[in-house]
Write a structure and sequence with these properties.
flat, about 70% helix, mainly alpha, 6 helices
């Protein structure tokens, strides 16, 4: 029995009747209470660090300090710039196909195991079929054209 059950076991030895559901719930919530306590301590640590930083640092805002800074050059013009979405689409497609191709290596090892060959081969071709349909869809939509 776990450490929580040990506490309840001591209560049972003294003559108290504790239902088994209470024992299980106590063990369940004690495990999460440790995680919750660590989360609270982490948030408290960050809050204290930010508070101490705010109290200890010198705060002398000047117009030069409040000016937008980029690589030592004074900003000129608008702050808004148009971004080409197609670069993100290329990156997204690359990530999809790179991550999906990682799944082919474990299949190759399972394919060699006895009894899994045909099932693994069928699953692999279904998976590759989905990838091919996605690639065809992107190609038909003109996403893969660099213009």
């Amino acid at each position: 029995m776990c450490a929580v059950g040990h506490d309840v076991h001591d209560v049972r030895e003294r003559g108290a009747d504790v239902p088994e559901a209470v024992v299980l719930a106590a063990g369940y919530f004690r495990g999460y209470s440790v995680v919750g306590l660590l989360a609270v301590l982490g948030v408290l640590f960050v809050a204290v660090a930010f508070g101490a930083s705010r109290l200890l640092r010198p705060a002398v805002p000047t117009p030069e300090k409040l000016l937008t800074y980029e690589c030592g050059v004074d900003p000129v013009g608008e702050g808004w710039a148009h971004t080409q979405v197609r670069y993100y689409v290329y990156a997204f497609l690359y990530v999809i196909f790179a991550v999906d191709s990682v799944f082919l290596f474990p299949w190759a090892t399972v394919f060699a195991a006895p009894g899994y060959g045909v099932t693994t081969l069928v699953e692999m071709f279904v998976f590759l079929g989905f990838l091919a349909v996605g690639l065809l869809y992107a190609w038909k939509k003109g996403v893969l054209e660099w213009t």
